[in-house]
Write a structure and sequence with these properties.
Elements: H1 9-29, H2 47-59, H3 64-73, H4 75-88, H5 97-104, H6 115-125, H7 130-142, H8 152-159, H9 176-179, H10 182-204, H11 234-241, H12 254-262, H13 268-277, H14 279-292, E1 301-305, E2 308-313, E3 316-317, H15 319-332, H16 341-362, H17 367-447
Antiparallel strand pairs: 1-2, 2-3
Helix pairs in contact: 2-3, 2-4, 3-4, 4-5, 4-6, 4-11, 6-7, 8-12, 10-14, 10-17, 12-13, 14-17, 15-17, 16-17
Amino acid sequence: MSMDLTAGPGAATELHRSAEALLAHIAGGGVAPTAPMEFNDIEGYWLPPALEALVALMAGEDALGALAKAAQRDEQRTALFLCLSLAVAGQGDRIHASWLGTAFGELSADRPVGHGQRALWLAAARGAYGPAGKIFVLRKLDAVAVPADTDIDRWLGSLVPGEPAVVVPRSLVDFPELAEIPELARPAQAAARLARLRKRCEEITSSRRPDASTSPPLRNGDRRPVSAWSQDEPLAVLRTLIGATRDDGPMGSLTGYLLEDLSPGADPDLAASALHVVAPIVRTVAEELCEATHLDPPATVTVPILGHPIALHPEGPDAESLAAAERQITSDGVPRRPGPWRAYAAFATAAAGLAGVITAAVLGAPLVAVVLLAVATAGLTGLGGFWLWRRRIQEQADAEFVSSQVSVLREMAEGAVWALHEYTREAQERSKQAAEDLSDLTRLIRRGPRAA
C-alpha cells in the first residue's frame, strides 16, 4: 500500500472487509450493488475513493471527483484496481484508454512480469477490454524483444513437446536402422517437426475455443470463496491490491510466461497472444526446418546388416564389404566342432578286436569268449560309424546355415538399396509437403490472434 495504516487499524480492517465484499459481489453477478455503500475515507489512502469511483462507474453515475482523488493519492494502483475490477464484472468497456497504459507500466526482458501486468495481460487476451485492449497488450509485448540467445529448442519444446527421438519414414519401415543415419534422419525429422508445428499453430489460431478448454473465466460466476481464487487470476491480484492478502507469490519472466502459454493445454487466448509475440522466431524455425527437408541423401551409406557393416551404393551393395561379411559369416558363422578322431579311435579299437577274435578262434579259445569279443568289436564298429554319420549331418547343417545367412545378407543388402531409392523418391514428396506446411504456417501466424 502507499501509506502506513497503523494509525487507524480498525478503520482499515473495516474498509478491507467492505472492499472484499464488493469484489465478491461484482465478480459473482457483474452488477453494481443495489444498496448504497459507504466507505470510510482514510487520509492519503487511494482505496476508499477508488471504491467509490468503481461503484459510480458501474451504476453509470459521475465518478470524476472520486477518480481524481484516488489518482492523486496513487495513480498506478487506482488504474490497475479499476481496470481489473471492471474486467471481472464484465464491464471492461467502461475503462478509459489511458488507464490501461498507467496500470500496465513498462515491460522488460530483464525484469519479472508483475502480477498486475500478468492479470491485465490475461484479461485483455480473453477480450475483457475488447479488440482495442487486446491490441494494446500485444503492442506492449511486441515492444520487448525476445532475447536473441534464447534456445530455439525451448520454443519448439513448448509448442510441440514429446517429439520421437527417431522418425522412421514410410520408405524405411523395413530398415529402421537406416533411419538412424544422421544424413537420412535429419530431413525426415525436420519434415515431421514442421508438420507438427503447423498443426499446433493451426490449433492456436483457430477461431473457436476447444470444448475441452479448462481456461478459468474472469468472473466468479460459481461464487467460489475469495480464498479459492487462483493466484494467476485478476481476482487474486485484486485481493492483494485491497490488502486482503500480502502474499503475491513469485513473479515469472516474460519468456517464461510465453513458453507456458504456448504449451498444449494452455489457455487458448493466451496461446494466441504468445504466438503473435514469438511469430518471427516460429517463422525462422519453420523456414530452417523446410530447408532441412531439401537435403540430398548421401551417395554411399554404411549400415549394419546381420551385424556386418555393408556399404550401399545407388547401383547396389559394395562388393568388397559384402565379400568381407560373407567371409566372416563362413569363418565365424558356426561354432568350432571336434574332429573325427573319436570315430577313428573306435574303428582302430574294433580292428584290434577283430584280430583278437581271429586269434582266439585259431587257438581254440572258449566259444563264449570268442562270441563276446566279436560282439564288442561289432559294437565299436557301429559306434564309430554313427559318430561319422552324425558329424557329416552336422557339417551339412552348418553349410546350409552359412549358405542361408549369406543369402539373407545379400537379400537384405539389395532390399536396403531399393529402400534408399524409395527414400530418394519419397524425399521429393516430403519437400513438397514441407513447402506447403511452411506456406500454411506463415499464413496462420500472419493472420495474428483473434481480435474479438
